[in-house]
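User: I'll paste a sequence; please echo it back and then give the predicted structure.

Assistant: Echoing your sequence first, then the prediction.
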Amino acid sequence: MPRILLVNSNTTASITERIATAARAGAAPGTEVLAVTAPFGLPLIVTPADWLLAGPPTLAALAEHGAGCDAAVIACFGDPGLEAAKQLFPFPVLGISEAAFHLACLLGRRFGIVSFTAALRPMFQDCLERHGLAARCVGFRMGPPFAGDPGRVAEERRGLLLDLVWQSVKEDGAEVVILAGAPLAGLAATLQAELPVPLVDGVVAGVRLAAALVGLTPERRKPESPLSGYPASLSALYGGG
């Protein structure tokens, strides 16, 4: 029975509850899901600067709660800290954008990305380019600025998000649509019956793919340089910690 750690890189507990519910509903039978919130940071990651700041708390949460887990998922679209996590931890680590992009490519030739605010677009574009999948994306459909409760945005903007998905399909030619962002976890399952193309939930994709990768990550050597000023659990991942 695989045990998957989900790390919400935001500090908003209601988002952690949302991703935990979506992950447990979408995971394969027998999968155990442990969802945790970043120990410090920002309530909602929106800008590229936010994304950069979210890396250290994400890594700290992985280090603190990773013992006994078979794989981990960074449940924040944009995957802060992902490259470092892949090198530091002895189990597979995926990000929900990484998982969503690759699953979408398996389900169709071209995919669209829909999210609740256009402020996220620069971060998403950068993430697509890092994964080498920008050419598979037909474009973005995103809502106006958002300043409400991140844990409620999926319900508050349900109608808008449904319209944006239809625009992605009809106007952009998307064969698959990704609902991007941890605050939208679980929404794909409620909208799917109203749409003619597959919807991808990054949290569900991450949990499913992480479970499939259990046992496939080779052991890595600890970096030899000491790490200072970080939590002890994170410093211990370095040879000098």
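The chain has two domains: 3-96+207-235, 97-201. Residues 48-65 form the longest helix (18 residues).
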